Amino acid sequence: MTPKEFFDKVVEMRRCQKEYFKNKRQIDLRISKQIEREVDEEIERVQKNPSQQTESATLLDYG
């Protein structure tokens, strides 16, 4: 996952979380949990691969 893709995924996750807390719909909860798992998996993948950490350090330097 590129830094831009990761950033976009986190933005999507937060949007879904806010939507869930606003409406308390189970579908929003399931979607936000799925995206959170994807974000957690990416964090774990990068932490296991030290060569990726340099790229992660410049997360916002994708533009």
Give, in order, the helices and strands.
HHH
Mean pLDDT across the residues is 86
Number of domains: 1
Give a quick account of the main beta sheet: strands, pairing sense, barrel closure.
none
Low-confidence stretches: none
User: What is the CA-based Rg, rounded?
Assistant: 13 Å
User: What is the number of beta strands?
Assistant: 0
- Strand proportion: under 5%
Identify the overall geometry: elongated
Number of helices: 3
Structural class: mainly alpha
What proportion of the residues is helical, as a percent range?
A: over 70%
User: For the terminal residues, how far apart are their CA atoms?
Assistant: 16 Å
Notes on the protein architecture:
By secondary structure, the chain is mainly α. It has one domain (3-48). The protein contains three helices and no strands. The protein has helices spanning 3-23, 26-48, 50-57. The chain is elongated and about 40 Å long. The two termini are 16 Å apart. The relative contact order is 0.18.
